[in-house]
Amino acid sequence: MARPTRPLTVLTCLCAAGVILAPALALIVHGPGHNTENREQVSYRGLDAGWDWFGSFGNYIADRLPLKSRAVRADAWVDEHFFHEDPAFGGAASPRVLRGEQGFLFIADAIEAACNPHAPPAATAANLKELARVITESGRDMLAMVAPDKSTIHPELLPAGLAQRDCFDTYTDELWSDLDNAQIDGFVDLRAALTAESRATREPLYLRKDSHWDTAGSLVAVHAMVDHFA
């Protein structure tokens, strides 16, 4: 086998050095970057962390790398326009966010949890019923509401050709059917209320690029709570 030529070896070493040293150089020139995560930045633990110091220090630096937001956007652009896939960061096997119809984004974990649930729907309903029974027997007024996620209320906006669509629909239908039939004390079916409101207004009740409901969606829950206790 032919050995690599010296220029190629030198070029490879220079590229490797650039990849390693570029973040450190950017940190020196630009200073720490702003927080781009939906959480507090990792704190420096010091040498008392033992062998965990290496991992914690790496996370500490990663949270403060300058130009991190630009790098994330560039990575996402490559995934979307070059590979024609939803963005997946850090070498993940699958994307955490799914791009649905009309620009709506969905959390992939919600689909994965429905297709690989921690417990069957009947067990979930039974556990909630037992909790409601304990609260009711203590002499308190009970209201049980399960907040459905965006993919449950707006499945028509999920990505076309979603491979896990069948198992998601099956689990979702079974869960809400079991909750409705379990005769849970103070149970209010928010899925039915939100679906009815969305059909009446012909407007989505969840934010386009966020997993939470919008003001109109939250008002449905507030009205259901007030009506229940009234």
Commentary on this structure:
With 230 residues, this protein is mainly alpha-helical. It is built from nine helices and four strands, in the order H-H-H-E-E-H-H-E-H-H-E-H-H. The strands form two sheets. Strands 1-2 form a two-stranded antiparallel sheet. It has a two-stranded parallel ribbon with strand order 3-4. The longest helix has 25 residues, at 6-30. The model has no long low-confidence stretch (mean pLDDT 83).
Q: How would you concisely characterize the structure shown here?
A:
With about 230 residues, this protein is mainly alpha-helical.
What string gives the helices and strands in order?
A: HHHEEHHEHHEHH
Helix amount: 40-55%
Shape: elongated
Q: Major sheet: order of its strands? A: 1-2
Put simply, the count of helices is 9
Q: Main sheet, how many strands, which sense, barrel?
A: 2 strands, antiparallel
What structural category do the secondary elements indicate? mainly alpha
Q: How many β-strands, per DSSP?
A: 4
**Radius of gyration using CA atoms only:** 25 Å
Approximately what portion of the residues adopt beta-strand conformation?
A: under 5%
Low-confidence stretches: none
Mean pLDDT: 83
Question: Terminal Cα separation, in Å?
Answer: 83 Å
